[in-house]
Amino acid sequence: MIYSNTSLPQKIAILKTALDKTEALIIGAGAGLSASAGLDYDNLDTFNTLFPGYHDRYGMKSINEADFYQFPTPEEQYAWWIRNIAAIRYDYPPGKPYLDLHRIVKDKNHVILTTNTDGQFFKSGFDTDKICFPQGDLSFFQCSTPCNDELYPNEQMVKEIRSHIGNTDFAIPSADIPRCPHCGSPLIPNVRRTKKFVENPWLEKYQILNDFLAANRGKKMLFLELGVGFNTPGIIRYEFEFLFKMRKYAEMIRINLNVVEITLLYKEDRAAVIQGDLGPILSKLAEEY
Ligand SMILES: [Zn+2]
Known about the structure:
This protein is α/β, with parallel strands linked by helices. The protein has two domains: about 1-40 and about 95-135 and about 205-289, TPP-binding domain (Rossmann fold); about 40-90 and about 135-195. The chain contains 13 helices and ten strands. The model has no long low-confidence stretch (mean pLDDT about 95). Bound molecules: zinc ion. Zinc ion binds near residues 143, 180, 183 and 185.
């Protein structure tokens, strides 16, 4: 079923009914969840608010564009990374939709698969041991070569380097470029943007999801997909559709702002596609818990 023009109370009722009867909840969260928390990575206003001056100076129109922009010098590249990580991963508070989601699911048997690298789940009180984040996390650096699979927690480094530049500086001092302690290559954010991404530590964590599915075989499962778009649909969207299809008694709910994509789910009685803004939906639903 597709629920587009359905009222908010009706959408809440559908979600509450499904959540109340589930014995094993599998949550998939994409960029739409962070966008509803104010971190819209494709939005010019968000970009200008968090990173004033970048649009005027370089022309990019969003955080996503800046992430893939070829800055003219390493010092400017690092200024973007340092300011980006400091603002989004460390300074930005936990978003209300994440806090609401935590309130809704905290007492339920659940696991989370997310492509978001902004750490919002960790800030909002979710159990780290229940989260798979195969795209990495902005709070880690890795070697740019990479000479090994080691990850380097970067909070102190980032805050120290950030303190050396002002809000109108677009380059960091050359001496501040962080270096791999093993080979001396520059350190880069550990997020999946190029083939150099160090992914082994996260592939190991992916086992959390597999273990959860195995441990809950035969139980009433609900796949709850939140704000997952088409940037990397293979990680959550197609995976959830496949896992859901393979389990005859599982249910699935997809909540998305733009939900008019063709999908097999439309034809399933045990699947619901709810079109709507996650912010108000999670806020209202959290009142029930
Ligand atoms: Zn190295």
